[in-house]
Amino acid sequence: MPNDAIGAIASGDPVLALRSATQALHAQLDSQLPLAQPADATQSLHHYHAHLSVLHGWLSDLMPALQRAGWGQDLLEPLRADLADAGLAGEPAGQARPPVQTEAAAWGLAYVVEGSQLGGRVLHQRLRSAGVRVPLRYLEGRGAGTAAHWKGFLQSLRAALVEPADVAAASAAACWAFEDLLARFRRSGWIQDAR
Ligand code: HEM
Asked: CA-to-CA distance for 143 and 55, rounded, in angstroms?
């Protein structure tokens, strides 16, 4: 975890702590994911399916832990529907088990999964502008309700993460979720190893 993230844990706001702990990892995804790069409609759709396939394995493995926080579980269904349209099943579950022993850690995972829907709105718009016409249920998520849903999630998260030790456990779990996702994209050859 970066040093400024440790400072943010001490500041008392769990959202600031989670954001600063994961900022650099998010930037890696944002700058490296093929889906986030400009492309034509055919290429964008190809990237979308590859993206969903990797996310399928990742989300499936997070699902049991997400149940402990009670958020982020309803995203697998639209993701599977988009994969099914393309005749794909996605990467299987069982590649990694999240190191989650406490409910606080489960909130850290939920932060990453729920937060990914914010970027999803941006990607949805880009794919539509590139000319992709198929349903994009996963990226569409809650549509116009995304911001309100995120606000409600942050409210619950702040109520759940009060003790500094819980904020630290959630931040560590959130970093794990990002790193696991990056590792899956590297293994499937969609992003290069930066190290
Ligand atoms: C599946 C991969 C991704 C994950 C897990 C992820 C995760 C997150 C998280 C946790 C947040 C919340 C940050 C916060 O406000 O505390 C967030 C916000 C955001 N992400 Fe991503 N993200 C992903 C991919 C992307 C990509 C590829 C883009 C590029 C378009 C992107 C753009 C954004 C934007 C624009 C926000 C909103 C920032 C704001 O409104 O304050 N994300 N994402």
From this structure: 19
